[in-house]
Specification:
homodimer, alpha+beta, Arc Repressor Mutant, subunit A, Thiol Ester Dehydrase, Chain A, 6-stranded antiparallel β-sheet, DNA-binding
Chain lengths: 193, 193
DNA sequence: TTAATATTAGCACTAGGTACTAAAACTAAT
DNA sequence: ATTAGTTTTAGTACCTAGTGCTAATATTAA
């Protein structure tokens, strides 16, 4: 190994790590951080097939643009594959490492819950439903990579209240079940506050 | 108004709309779309204080990077303000329109659930806990802008099982309560699969 | 000492701009 | 129609964060 600084291999390993945790660093900043010339950094990126800063930023923007929308935005969590409005519905959610705890690869409950909630809302009417009460059981842990299949069924309707059961399975094995009480608002004439 | 094409005002209105729905368009593409020179587009952007393409992309990337992380990533949902490990904890989550349904401004259950789940996990130990069973009640709707204050308390411990109650309030009014059963893994010696 | 590998340097070129000046075209009012 | 004002177009120099290339210099291993 060289006496001045670290070896090429080590530098490239560090480079990968650094850019993974912060994709917003320029070659110049990297060259200063590693005490090498800017050309060395560029050769490293070439070898490791890491795109330039602007491409990296664009990738982050494009990837997360849709991700945030589907998580945070108005859309359903998971892919809607069947819907009989007012009666039943199904959705599929393909999980990956980003849904899970790093150490255990166990998918966080919030994502399973989000899929269940959103299919429950979808079978009623996404725009005007609010969750009232949910009675939830996680039967088995879900791991990153598992494909979650959620089934929702409306069991009772009373006025603007809907009772919806949601079951989620992974390879025929039930991992979640929950009863959702949804209350629909009358957005048209509800200015009596 | 000019006979060739549209007025300046209309073009600028359209420009704002277009860039809002798709921030990834270059000045050149815009100049072609509006049948004006590239300089006109740049003058328009200057007047409307719209940054250049690269800045726009960077903004999208930076905004969503943290959002996705806090929603999707390993961190806690909400801001941890108090923690007595193994006993109790508190967190605050400030909501905005992005947490809510567009039409009703009602905050989605998944976000409230995520805050509750993550404070429950935090009081045990974020790295090795998994949610087992949750018994949930939403007492009152939460609206965009509300500040959610979550309190978690460990009520019972039995082996690697923990019972945690979580209450969430908005201005002293309880909006959520839930009982979480957390099961901690022994990641050190769990290779007996 | 020689050969191979790693690093640095320099140059031309690129996209997608900014900042500025100047000319041309269109519009409205007298 | 002429003048004044606004709007649009054109062109130049400059910027960042690069690519792609060639060539020279260091460093290391045999």
């Amino acid at each position: 190994m060289s006496r001045k600084g670290i070896s090429k291999k080590d530098r490239q390993d560090n480079l990968l790590e650094k850019l993974h945790s912060d994709p917003f660093v320029t070659d110049e900043e990297l060259s200063e951080a590693f005490h090498v010339s800017i050309q060395t950094i560029r050769l490293d990126r070439l070898e490791l097939a890491i795109p330039e800063l602007r491409e990296r930023i664009k990738n982050v923007a494009e990837n997360n643009y849709s991700k945030v929308k589907s998580l945070h935005g108005g859309e359903i969590v998971g892919e809607l594959i069947d819907l009989d409005l007012g009666k039943s519905g199904m959705s599929i959610l393909e999980t990956d490492k980003s849904f899970a705890f790093e150490k255990t690869d166990v998918v966080k409950g919030q994502h399973i819950f989000a899929q269940a909630e959103s299919i429950a809302i979808a079978v009623i009417d996404a725009s005007v439903a609010l969750i009232g009460v949910a009675n939830i059981k996680y039967k088995n842990p879900v791991f990153a990579g598992d494909k979650l299949i959620a089934k929702a069924e409306v069991t009772r309707t009373r006025g603007n209240k809907y009772f919806v059961w949601v079951f989620i399975k992974v390879k025929q094995v039930e991992v979640f079940r929950g009863k959702f009480l949804l209350v629909s608002f009358n957005t048209d004439n509800s200015k009596e506050d």
